[in-house]
Design a protein that fits this description.
There is one protein chain. The protein is 38% helix and 15% strand. By secondary structure, the protein is an alpha/beta fold. The strands form 6 sheets. It has a 5-stranded parallel β-sheet, sandwiched between helices. Strands 1-2-4-3 form a 4-stranded mixed β-sheet. Helix 8 packs parallel to helix 17. It starts with a strand and ends with a helix.
Length: 507
Amino acid sequence: MAIACITTRAGKGVEAPKVSVEVHLSNGLPAFNLVGLPETSVREAKERVRSAIINAGFEFPMRRITVNLAPADLPKQGGRYDLPIAVGILAASEQIPLKAASHCEFVGELALSGEIRPCSGLLPVLIAAQKAHMDLVMPLDNRQEAEVVGYTKVYLCGHLQQLAAFLHGQNQLPRIDNSLEWIVPAEQQENKRCLSEVIGQYQAKQALEIAAAGGHNLLMLGPPGTGKTMLASRIIQLLPQLNYDEALEVAAIHSIAGLNLNIQDLYKRPFRSPHHTASAISLVGGGANPKPGEISLAHKGILFLDEVAEFPRRVLDCLREPMETGEVVISRANAKLTFACQFQLIAAMNPSPCGDNEHQSRATPEQILRYLSRLSGPFIDRFDLTIDVPPLPNGTLNQQSEQTETSTQVAHRVKQARERQLNRQDCLNSQLSGKMLLQLGGFKQAELEYLESSVNKLRLSVRSYHRLQRVARTIADLQGADRVERGHISQALGYRAMDRLLSKLTH
């Protein structure tokens, strides 16, 4: 019977569902029909496969060829189906042994010469093949992704002729190294952007340390040139590196987004800084064929929004739900995909449209309020800390520089504080629920009553009440305290610069 079934995998977000490529050769006028909901890029595979088979020295069957990509209700796109279709045709026409091909999964794009070209987004395919314990044949140029996953049943192939010889048992295909000893979390390189380079701004540095230790969202307010962007760019140096599972999860998202994978940066937390002209789709994700947005590319890392007030308000409000849930669901007519987006938001903005809200301000209180209203109240409420980054006092730039702490020293305290949190509650303080705060927060009843009265006086929301508890808990962890004292709560209340600014303008 001139029929063959070859296995490959589709791309569906960070998932890679199995696809069966069924090839049937029947009598009749020569034709090549491709069914199973193929997109345009897959339908064009017919001409690529035909030329590749002929130019590789095989015979293209002059019969009625029907190729079915099952399941039929799953949309297929991209050039990754070229290789399994070609293998299916060669197996159905008995030019290669079907039994040998049935034990492998195939993925790869074909050139007209028969060369196997690399594909994007193959990291989820590798992870799925590893879970299914299947042999996987993939392009030689995708070796880097295979080495990241470390799956030993991966065969790398560069040409259709090499693959045919392998399936006939005449030669062996290259494989990856059997060990992952070379992939180890490298020690933090010498900091090119060290916190000690930032002159002054001691409160801002302390807030940055608290944000890094507890995973809190941070908003910095200050005139132009006071060091807001400089501070934000140094937070990555304070954060511990990813573990292997987290690094693989982040790499899978970057892979399906078409970003190049750099082995040296595998364990480094992502830092994404989109321009304020970014659209809602580029920030959250989407498109006709949904791709992850900036918030998903910042998964397990930092999303920095510089000049956050210049972003359209509707774009910023799209972040509100993902910031709470840690994932974004993108629904389209032909797909419903979920992308992880557990990111930490760092934002910076000027306190007024002219850049300053003090004596040199050229803006009236009404103009400043109109400018600040570009950020909705619920969006501002998502920030655990909002701090002032004021201009440096006169003479600071030319005075004898003091020896300030380096990023490595601060990162050591951050690591210790994070370890305390993980040992106590198995998550960071920013992820504590209200119930967990009562059980594990270490708050005395008198301190909670003090905090509640302060929240009522400042007219803050219940969400802010819990966020202040989380920040106070992080401050206590940085100081190595088991209980949260009133001083920790008072310090947390001091990081409410936006509330003070709005209160000043409205009274």
